[in-house]
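We emphasize that the prediction below concerns an isolated chain of 277 residues; any contacts that depend on oligomerization or on bound cofactors are therefore not represented. The input was used exactly as deposited, without trimming of termini.
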Amino acid sequence: MFNNIHDFTSQSYDSIKYILNSEIRLNILLELTQKPLNVEDLQKILKKQETNILRSLRELEELNLIEKNNNKKYSLTSSGYLACRNLEVFIENWMVSDKFNKYWNTHALNSTPIQFSRYLYLWKDAKLINADSINYAKTLEIFKEKISNQKNLKIILPIFSKYHIEAIINSLENNDGYLKLITSKNIYDKILESEFSDKFKKLRENDQIKTYITDDDIHQIFYTIVDDCALLTLFYNDGIYDDSSILVDEKKENALIHKIIFDDYEKTCKKNEENHD
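Result of the prediction step, given as a token string:
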């Protein structure tokens, strides 16, 4: 059922749904995350009939989520522990989906990498900043501001924008910085055909840019990670890139996880360190 905390599949979600469909099953698992308990303990805590508790315990045992020891107490198996962790992530993801309900519903999430979708909850404390009629370039200004003094950049780049490319190159030059760039061959070629070609090539030659190039335009998120924050912009459901809204996560506790997500996604991309010039 649950082989690994990072192994989110449709089967994993079906299993979560099965647990959530029963209040008793769910509460038993949650109680067992605290300590092993016997039937009598669970009956007192849950205030349910013994027959219902026994039936639910048997079902959870059959799923290898719990086990009974010699003292007739039940405890979580390793799969049970992973199930509870996945439940926590599922609930946290649901909470952040509810907070930014309109934003998520109007933007394409079905094509985002599973590495990103798995950690959607990271954005629950983020700020959603929108451009307006007074300042239509607000999201670009936020992007420039957040990367301007950074030495280490990690970026998934799904679009060619000379304004963003210019901001990235300026940051690398001004801070003697380093960039890990994931993009498609199509976007990469456009960079090399642009007015930034010479500067980009020089930064690559100086090992300040490491590129990870894919053959197709598979990247559906503009994801930027620096030391103290993460930035996210998405595409609308109709496939048009949305440059009017940006999510900014400045929660320090999330910084390492954002880097792990990027590194995980990087491994799924075609790594190409050859000279594309």
